[in-house]
Amino acid sequence: MARTRFTKDAGLSARMGLTMFLNGLIYVVLIAAIWWILGGSTGGVVLAVLLSVGIFWFQWYFSDKVAIKAMGARVVTPEQAPELHSLVDRLCQQADMPKPQVAFSDTRVPNAFATGRSPEHSVIAVTRGLLDELEPKEVEAVLAHELSHVAHRDVTVMTIAGVTGIVASLMMRSFLFARGGRNNNGVPIQLLLMLVGVVVYALSFVLIRVLSRYRELAADRAAALLTGSPSTLASALVKISGQTQKMPQKDLRQTAGASHLAFFNVGSMFSTHPSLEKRLAQLDKISNQLSTEL
């Protein structure tokens, strides 16, 4: 975690370390599988390495731009969004952390997200719906939540962990374009690509979901403690949840590409976010603890 005034979370750090280790192990197995499927040749090794390095490089340097585009956002200057920049400036000064780029998405869906490979190369974005529906203090609480993701560096881990899923997804799709061919054991290459891709994608999916749900709770906790107002963040959550439920599906689909990075996501058993009830219960507990300490 970067040195900031955001509360450190040992549980989050441990989970990020475990996720990186297991995801790295899966990735090594995946590249080895690609090499074996391609016949164990020198050319197969070179292809597997180039594939892994190329996708990792793209994800590392361009994931923030992909996320911004998926959210329909654009980076804005202090002149273009003075009030928004003022909130971010104040929070960054309070948290003693570098200021990320600030982006704005002209969509009615109330949400926000943070992405980037490091605190020095990060972006925090909000939507028009969020600014319209929330009071300034509630917007500040949401921004504190997103900034904590940057400070905790869990956005970096999510960026790296997503590489395995991307490669696995490409493998699953590649079987549609493969034309005949068998590996050294006579097994059809199309079938092997599909099976390995499915297994690796499923494992990567589970790892990222487990980490993502915990990191959202950690960000809620850190934001509540930094601002000293858990109830304000809880109020923002309730308002966003209510508005999201009313949104047409076509509007929700516009921001679906970055939903795993967003402040709020419509819950399900496969959701990247914990339930609203769980988040509110944690904030209520923090509120009671702060009241006791006064």
Short description:
Residues 78-286 form the Peptidase M48 domain. With 294 residues, this protein is α+β, with helices and mostly antiparallel strands. Helix content is 66%, strand content 7%.
Structure notes:
- This protein is an alpha+beta fold and 294 residues long.
- The protein has one domain (10-293).
- It is built from ten helices and four strands.
- The protein has helices at 10-37, 42-70, 82-95, 128-133, 136-152, 154-174, 189-227, 230-246, 249-254, 276-293; strands spanning 73-75, 101-105, 112-118, 121-127.
- It has a four-stranded mixed sheet with strand order 1-2-4-3, sandwiched between helices.
- Helix 1 (10-37) runs antiparallel to helix 7 (189-227), helix 7 packs across helix 8 and helix 7 packs parallel to helix 10 (276-293).
- The longest helix has 39 residues, at 189-227.
- The protein is elongated.
- The two termini are 28 Å apart.
- The mean pLDDT is 82.
- Residues 78-286 form the Peptidase M48 domain.
- InterPro entries: HtpX_protease, Pept_M48_protease_HtpX, Peptidase_M48.
- This is Protease HtpX homolog.
